[in-house]
From TrEMBL:
Gene3D superfamilies: Glycogen Phosphorylase B. Residues 1-20 are annotated as: Disordered. Residues 38-220 form the Glycosyltransferase subfamily 4-like N-terminal domain. It comes from the Bacteria. It holds the Pfam family Glyco_trans_1_4. This is Glycosyltransferase WbuB. PANTHER family: COLANIC ACID BIOSYNTHESIS GLYCOSYLTRANSFERASE WCAL-RELATED (PTHR12526:SF640), GLYCOSYLTRANSFERASE (PTHR12526). One of its GO terms (molecular function) is glycosyltransferase activity. Coiled coil: none annotated.
Length: 421
C-alpha cells in the first residue's frame, strides 16, 4: 500500500510557560502511569507538563492495575509506593482491583483506595495544596480531593466519565444504587471551584444532574511531540486497528461483526485488536466461533513504542456503546488524530464525536450497531490512500491548535489560579 506519511512533526515542546502557573499542584486520580489505557495517559501527560514547566507536582493515585484485574508486577509489595518519575512525585496507595467489572467490585476497589487517600492526608503523607486537580472516575477522588485543598486554594475536578450515566446506560447496579451515585456526583462536583469536561454534551448532562459550578470544556489532549505521523511499516497488510481496553462500554462486539463484513469488502485487510481487559477471553472465543481469520489480538504497546504502534493502523477504530456516548469522550480519538491517521467511530447524531467530525473532517462516523455500515466506511478509507492522507493532515492540524499538551497546560493553569478566560 502507498505510504500514508506526510510532512511530519511540528514539535509540541519545549513549550512557552503559561502566563500564570501555580508553584505547587496536587493531582488526585485513581489512574496514572504506567497504566496504558483509559484516563491514565492523559493525566500522566498533564502532570508531567506541569512538572516540566516548573511546578512542583505531586500525584496521589493507586498501585497500577488497569485495564487488568490485578496490581502490576513490581508494585504489589509497596516498594514503589513513593517514587519520582519525570519530575513528578508519585504517592501510591493499595487497592483491590475490580474483577469482572460489576458495581460491587468497583465499589470495593474505590472504597479501599479512597480510605487510603484519607489516611494519607491524616498522617501528613500528602499535605494540603493551594492548587488541586482531581479526576473522575472516580467521583470519590473528586470528593476526597476537596479535603486536600488548602484554605483559599482552588480545586478543579476533571470529569472524563459521568459514572452514574455510564452505570445506568450499561445496566450496572439497581435504581437505588444509581440514585445514590447521582447524589454523590452532584454533591462532590458542587464543592469544587470549577469543573472540566471533555465535550459539550457532557456539560449538558452535568447541568441536568444539578451541577451548578462553572463548567469548562477542554477536549482530551495529547503530547503531540511524542505522538506524530510516521510512515506505515513496510510489508504489512492493510491494517484496521483498535487499541485500548477490552471493556463493555467500548462496544467491541460490533467490531467483530464489522470484521465479518470486511472480509468481503477488503479480503486482504486484517483487523488488529490491541489491548487487554475484562472481556478479552470472551472476545477471543467469539472470534473463534465466527471463524474470523482476519482478526488478530495483541497486547497494548508500551508507552515508549506508542508512536510506532499507532503508525501500524491505516484506519483506526473508535467503537462506543451508544447509551454511554454522552457520558464519556474517548481520549484515544485525539491520540489517533495526532498520529495523522483517520478513524471510524460509532456514535449518534449530536454526540461529541459527531459534532467534531463535521468541524474538522478528519474521520468518519457510522451509527452504532450497524456493522455493515462500519465495514463500508473502513473499506472506503482503505481503498483511498489520498483521502486518508488529507484527513490525517486535517486531524493533526486540529490537534496542534486545540488539543496539544501546551494548549491544555495553559487552560488548566488559568483555572487553577482563578482565570476562566
Amino acid at each position: 500500500m502507498p505510504d500514508d506519511s506526510f510532512a511530519v512533526r511540528r514539535p509540541d515542546g519545549p513549550a512557552a510557560r503559561p502566563s500564570a502557573l501555580p508553584p505547587r499542584v496536587l493531582l488526585v486520580a485513581q489512574s496514572y502511569w504506567p497504566e496504558p489505557a483509559g484516563s491514565a495517559p492523559m493525566m500522566t501527560d498533564l502532570a508531567t507538563a506541569f512538572a516540566a514547566a516548573g511546578t512542583e507536582t505531586t500525584v496521589l493515585t493507586a498501585r497500577p492495575n488497569y485495564p487488568g484485574a490485578k496490581v502490576y508486577d513490581g508494585y504489589a509489595d509497596g516498594n514503589q509506593d513513593r517514587t519520582v518519575v519525570a519530575g513528578v512525585t508519585i504517592e501510591r496507595l493499595p487497592t483491590i482491583p475490580p474483577a469482572g467489572g460489576g458495581m460491587k467490585a468497583r465499589l470495593i476497589h474505590e472504597g479501599v483506595l479512597h480510605a487510603g487517600f484519607a489516611a494519607a492526608l491524616m498522617r501528613g503523607r500528602v499535605s494540603r495544596h493551594a492548587a488541586v486537580l482531581s479526576l473522575c472516575p472516580s467521583i470519590f477522588s473528586v470528593a476526597m480531593a476537596d479535603r486536600f485543598r488548602a484554605p483559599g486554594g482552588r480545586h478543579i475536578a476533571i470529569v472524563h466519565d459521568i459514572q452514574s450515566g455510564l452505570a445506568g446506560a450499561l445496566g450496572m447496579g439497581g435504581g437505588a444504587a444509581l440514585k445514590a451515585i447521582r447524589a454523590i456526583e452532584r454533591t462532590a462536583l458542587n464543592r469544587a471551584d470549577g469543573i472540566v469536561v471533555l465535550s459539550e454534551p457532557m456539560r449538558e448532562v452535568l447541568r441536568e444532574l444539578g451541577v451548578t459550578r462553572p463548567i469548562t470544556v477542554i477536549p482530551p489532549h495529547v503530547d503531540a511531540d511524542a505522538v506524530h505521523p510516521l510512515p506505515r511499516p513496510d510489508g504489512q497488510p492493510p491494517t484496521v486497528l483498535y487499541s485500548g481496553a477490552f471493556a463493555r462500554k467500548q462496544g467491541l462486539d460490533q467490531v467483530l461483526d464489522m470484521a465479518a463484513h470486511l472480509r468481503g469488502l477488503a479480503p486482504e485487510a486484517r483487523v488488529l485488536l490491541r489491548g487487554q481487559g475484562g472481556i478479552e477471553e470472551e472476545l477471543k472465543a467469539k472470534t473463534r466461533e465466527m471463524g474470523l481469520a482476519n482478526v488478530q489480538f495483541s497486547p497494548l504497546a508500551p508507552k515508549e513504542k506508542l508512536n510506532e504502534a499507532m503508525a501500524e493502523g491505516d484506519v483506526h477504530l473508535v467503537p462506543q456503546r451508544p447509551e454511554g456516548a454522552a457520558f464519556a469522550m474517548p481520549g484515544k480519538a485525539v491520540t489517533i488524530l495526532s498520529s495523522g491517521r483517520p478513524f471510524v467511530a460509532t456514535c449518534l447524531p449530536g454526540s461529541a464525536l459527531s459534532v467534531l467530525e463535521g468541524q474538522i473532517g478528519a474521520f468518519l462516523t457510522t451509527p452504532p450497531d450497524e456493522p455493515r455500515a462500519m465495514a463500508e466506511a473502513v473499506a472506503s478509507l482503505l481503498n483511498d490512500p489520498d483521502r486518508r492522507i488529507a484527513m490525517g493532515r486535517r486531524g493533526r492540524t486540529w490537534v496542534e491548535e486545540n488539543a496539544s499538551r501546551q494548549v491544555a497546560l495553559d487552560r488548566y493553569a488559568k483555572l487553577l489560579v482563578g482565570d476562566r478566560g
